[in-house]
Write a structure and sequence with these properties.
Oligomer: single chain
Number of domains: 1
Order of helices and strands: EEHEEHEEEEHEE
């Protein structure tokens, strides 16, 4: 039996200077052999050497969002385009690059993702997951900040 994961990736980014852009959100389901080491599979599926994880709720179910920890340093996509997830604490968190959605057990082991592709589409329609646009802004105190829209 294999573990099932969902990959989300932003494609076809077009951000005009000074304006809002467009992007396509790609989604695919992948299966990994049950006994395959998860981190090695994650590195291969995400095309990276270091990963980080963000726990989120999607339709009331806990899902781990795995992503390339060093994606921004690689400079492979315009920094202003990200996937925005709402974490368990209710805060919006931008993640850049491809992500892998997985489930987890009580001991922290990785399981098949506990949500379907249809539930992901529903979460996108409900703005639990969205493509975000980021801009650098100057705060009233003169410090630099980031605005997520």
């Amino acid at each position: 039996m294999a573990k099932r994961f969902i990959i989300l990736k932003i494609d076809n980014v077009s951000v005009p200077v000074g304006g809002m852009g467009t992007a396509t959100l790609g989604m695919s389901t992948v299966e990994v052999p049950q006994n395959a080491p998860f981190l090695e599979a994650a590195y291969q599926l995400l095309g990276c050497e270091m990963v980080d994880v963000l726990p989120v709720l999607i339709n009331g179910k806990k899902v781990d969002v795995w992503f390339d920890q060093d994606f921004l340093a690689k400079g492979t996509m315009p920094m202003q385009t990200s996937l925005v997830f709402t974490n368990i604490g209710g805060n919006e968190v931008p993640i850049f690059g491809k992500v892998l959605l997985a489930g987890t057990d009580d001991e922290g082991g990785t399981l098949s993702v506990g949500v379907s592709s249809d539930e992901i589409r529903h979460a996108i329609a409900a703005h639990q997951i969205r493509v975000g646009h980021m801009e650098k802004v100057v705060k009233p105190d003169g410090q630099l900040g980031i605005l997520i829209s």
